[in-house]
Amino acid sequence: MSNSQKTPLYEDHVKLGARMVDFAGWIMPVQYEGLKEEHFATRTNVGLFDVSHMGEIRVKGPKALDVLYGRDDRARDRTEDFLSRPRR
Description:
By secondary structure, this protein is α+β, with helices and mostly antiparallel strands. It is built from four helices and three strands; from the N terminus they run E-H-E-E-H-H-H. It has helices spanning 10-15, 35-44, 64-69, 73-84; strands at 5-6, 19-23, 26-31. The longest helix has 12 residues, at 73-84. The protein is globular, with a radius of gyration of 15 Å.
């Protein structure tokens, strides 16, 4: 997995105890607690799928993050952190 890319949500998946695997060049969560528990949680609450590895858009310019995030400072901080990481 050393050559695989990490999504912006990678650290959150790890903190939540996900079992991570390489999937098409990305380190992705495949399971947290188990199939039955996750099925029940999705049926009674909500399920979320990290799609950040599935496509790419480019928003350029000095106000790009404002356009994308508006006043969501937490998301903006995470994106700025992700974008400041060295690229391969």
